[in-house]
Automatic annotation (TrEMBL):
Residue span(s) of domain Glucose dehydrogenase C-terminal: 147-368
Organism ancestry: Bacteria, Bacillati, Chloroflexota, Ktedonobacteria, Ktedonobacterales
Alcohol dehydrogenase-like N-terminal domain boundaries: 26-143
UniProt KW keywords: Metal-binding, Oxidoreductase, Zinc
Organism: Dictyobacter formicarum
Alphabetical list of InterPro entries matching this protein: ADH-like_N, Glu_dehyd_C, GroES-like_sf, NAD(P)-bd_dom_sf
Name the UniProt record assigns to this protein: Alcohol dehydrogenase
Residues forming coiled coils: none
Amino acid sequence: MKAIAVFPETKEIHVVEHPEPQIEHPEQVKLRLLEVGVCGTDRHICALAFGTPPAHSEYLILGHEALAEVVAVGEAVTHLQPGDLVVPEVRRPCADPACRACQASHQDFCQTGTYTERGIKELHGYMAEYVVDDVHFLHPVPKALSQVAVLTEPLTIAEKALVQALQIQQRLPWQTSAATSAEPGSGLTAVVLGAGPIGLLGAMLFVIQGFDTYVYSRAQTPNDKADIVAAIGATYISAETTPMEAFKERVGQIDLVYEAMDAAPLAIEVLQNLNRNGIFIFTSGTNPKQPFGIDSAATLHNLTPQNQIIIGTVNAGPATFQSAIEHLGVFQQRWPAILPRLITERYPMERASEVLLQKPGGIKHVVTIG
């Protein structure tokens, strides 16, 4: 079968002929891949910044944001059948029996760091015609979501971030009941840093949760991303035309910041305007080639007496995959003409290098497999 792989030793990326996998265990499922989203992680792997092939393999098959169709199931699989659509998880548990997180199916909180990840760390990814996977890592998707279900994995990042934020804020007695309400963000302000797919999906999630939502991004208006932000009922502000002081004056105190732009200096500036008891969530790692300074004394001067919290999060677990699928259904009902616009273009496998080796304009780019 055909697959798209990166060769770290020879620094090559191309389509390879890879053995087609077959079901070997009763709880396995054979999948025909339909679509695989491309993100910054894939481009970093292609730039050889990180990424580890499986043992005894000279290459790593790319791709971790996938939508697939079931073609065969093992004899112990009862809730899936050929023709069903599924979204697979990315991270798999470590083998250490002492890792309480992985033993509890929360591999996204793995305590040992020896987890594996499809298309990233020691496991082949989904940019292949077929994959065999364990049924426990597959999430059924309604066929009505077939055109947007490839957005599930990037949405899980915001889902996990929101769950953690609401759990943390239960420390505040007046927020305990709000956390379980239909709109737990009612009366609160959320700022999303960045208008890429992770940022825009996060903005959609915060809007339906009742937050007064702002998206602070580089590009000047008018642009397609700003139009999408306006269409979902949020407010787009350009960092190019609205400097930090003007941004602070317009937005006021911020209760939740969701960083999704890989721009640490700007994120630190926004941190200075976080409200009392507020939460700042980082989802992207900083670029070590672009160091930034931080006034630790000034930061702690706000952080400590104002009971603020900074957390980092990215990879999601089973529950957040399920909630992402459910919320994609909500988004599609609420914004049927807007949600599909997050996918800028679909590319055949033969053209995958165009989006793996560089970042074209637009929002989300998808490689079509099947």
